Amino acid sequence: NILFFQSDPLTSQTSSLKPPSDDPSGGESQPGTPLPLPGHSGLSIQEMVAMSPELDTYAITKKVKEVLTDNNLGQRLFGETILGLTQGSVSDLLARPKPWHKLSLKGREPFVRMQLWLQDPHSVEKLMDMKRLEKKAYMKRRLSSLSDGHSVDGALVGPDYIQGSQSPGQQHLKKPRVVLGPEEKEALKRAYQQKPYPSPKTIEELASQLNLKTSTVINWFHNYRSRIRRELFIEEIQAAGGVGPGSEGGSPSLRGSKSGEGDSCDGTESEGTMETRQGLGIGLEDHRGAFKDHDMEAESEAGGSNNSPAQTDCTTSGLGGPGSSCGQGGLGLFSLTEASSSSSASSTNIPASGPARNPRDNNLRKKKAANLNNIIHRLEKAASKEDPSEWEF
DNA sequence: TGAAAGTCAATATC
DNA sequence: GATATTGACTTTCA
Q: Left, alpha or beta for A275 (phi > 0: left; psi -120 to 50: alpha)?
């Protein structure tokens, strides 16, 4: 990536941008917040990322999507030219941007690039030019290959070569992509409901039962946890008002720093953060939708588990500080919602369904859920020292 | 050292 | 053909 930055199309591109204007927001960025420019300031993109004010990732991606759609520019071209990412990554990034405070420096980079791109008055023009050039080159290749009797595409990236980097002379048979069937996915989801962090033994068992490699099962759990988390971020942003985290109701300044981002849902801590959340007017129940595709169905099939996904995500990743993601990022709250509205509720006084209309009730309910969560966390921890397959609450 | 974050790239879907 | 999804892999971080 360093190499990419050094000969970075973005850098050269932004060198023609307007110099940064005064930021009236005093640091917290709105979609149009100008950034210092690498070309002018002599800053590398990494330095810019480090110095960047908090950006509204949701608003940025929204705007980028808009501009790309309006100008009929593809994700692939944009990704490769502006971000240095592949189409799939761009799609993912645009569809599910993580909030700024949840991003590492590396993760912030594409958003800084997007912001710079949006700032560039000639950004669209330039990309259009690229598109034309590409088309021209493609037509040229096509013509010459037609006259040679070869296909233009897939000369090196045909299905028989790894990552398109192997020439036919160095043939490596490609590993076929594993495609999990619906039954396998369902089984994995159910397993996840029971144990989001399965023991090696459980993984082995799952793998043999489903006739999969253990690495596939491990990867699936990694990916699933990570993607669920992201879904939750999106839900949070949308629930906070349909605009990005920088908008009202989701003030980024109230969020925790990266260091406090352990997905803790420790009861003690959750109580405090929930108060903050309530102050922001962010509803809890709305977030349940985040699980609808992944977990709720699986949960019901699993007969209800005390280990709801986010809950365990949250409880097993260490403790967060006062600004930890449980309160600010929402994981803790989601998990509390889960805890309070699923099977866990049956063993407590927490209502099993329906939002608490009264804010005081809601608060009480959340506190109870936080305590419950804490208990579960401790039990889980204790259980993990024994044979996890023998867990029973 | 294990989990999370970030990304690629094959494949599915629109 | 463009975009979305997802299994696999690498890097980062606590």
A: alpha
